[in-house]
Amino acid sequence: MKDLSTTYLGLKLKNPFIVSSSGLTNTAAKIEKLAAAGAGAIVLKSLFEEQLNHSVNQHIHKSQGTDYPEAYDYVAGYVKNNEVNDYLKLIAEAKQKVDVPIIASINCFSADEWVDFAKQIEQAGADAIELNLFVVNTDKNSEASEYEELYLNVLSNVRKHVTIPIAMKLGSNFSNLVAVVNKLSVHGAQGVVLFNRFYEPDIDIDHLAIKAAHVFSTPADIRQSIRWVSIVSSKIKNIDVAASTGIHTGEAAIKQLLVGAKAVQICSVIYKHGPEALTKMVSELNQWMKNKNFNHIEEFRGMLNYGHISEPQIFERAQFMKYFSGLE
Questions:
Q1: 92 CB-near residues (< 8 Å, 6+ apart)
Q2: Selecting from 3.20.20.70, 3.20.10.10, 3.30.930.10, 3.40.50.970, what CATH number does the domain 6-323 have?
Q3: Domain boundaries, the chain
C-alpha cells in the first residue's frame, strides 16, 4: 500500500477522502461504517440555523401561554438547547467509535447564533468546524463587498470562541473568489471547501408549483471545481483547499489532487453505491500511484495547478467559441 496520507486543516488524514456533511453522517452507526470503508475524515451532518428556528416556531405554535416574551424565550431556549445537545452527543459518540478526524458542520446565515455553540462543539471533541454558509443576495442596491462581509463576520465571530481549525464551505457565486479566500485566510480560516452544493429550485409544470431539483451531483460537475481548486491553491498558500462536488471515482479524486487539493469530499457516489464506493476509490488512488511510481501524495499534489503548468491561461478561458475558433 502506498502512503496515501495527507494533512488538512492541520489534521493528519490516512487518505484524502472525506465524507461530506449529509444524512450519511447523522448517526454514530453510519459513521462507523464509513470509517471502516476507508474514510480519511468525516464531516457530520450540519446543524442548521433554519432547522433550529423552524423547530422553535413549531413548538411555539403548539404551546400555550407563550404570549409573554419570557415564555417565548424559555421555549426557544429549551428547543435550541435540546437540538444542540443531540448534536454534541453525536460528536462525542463518533469520537469514541472511530479513529479518524470528526469535523462538525454548521449551516448558518447569521453571525450571532453560532458563537454560543462553537465552544460547546469544541468541548464535545470535534477536531474542526466547517462553516457552511450561503446567502442568495436579492438586494439590487447592495454591493458585492457587503455580501462578502457576512462570510467574514461569521468566521471572525466563531474564530474568537474556538481554537480548533475552521474551514469555510463556499459556493462559486463570488465576483472575485481568490480575493474572498485570501480574506478568509487572514480572518482565521485554515481551509476552504470548493464548492458547496446548494438546494436548487425546479418547476413542476403539471402542478404549477416549485419543487426541488435533483439533489445528487454528476461526474460532469467536477469541471468548475477543478478550475478554481487549481487557481486558489496556487494563489493562496496559507490555506488548505478541499475539492467537493462531482467526485465519483478515484480518477476524479486524482484530478483534484493534481490541481492542488489537499483533500476531496464525497457524498453522492456513496448515496448511490454505498460505502463500498469509498473503498473502491481509495484502491483506485493506490493503484494509480503504483503505476506512476509515486510513493506519497505530496510527490504529485499540485503538479498540474495554475502555478505549475506552462500555460496557466488554460484555466482562465471562459468562452467556448474562442477555444474552438481555430477548428474547421
A1: 124, 125
A2: 3.20.20.70
A3: 6-323
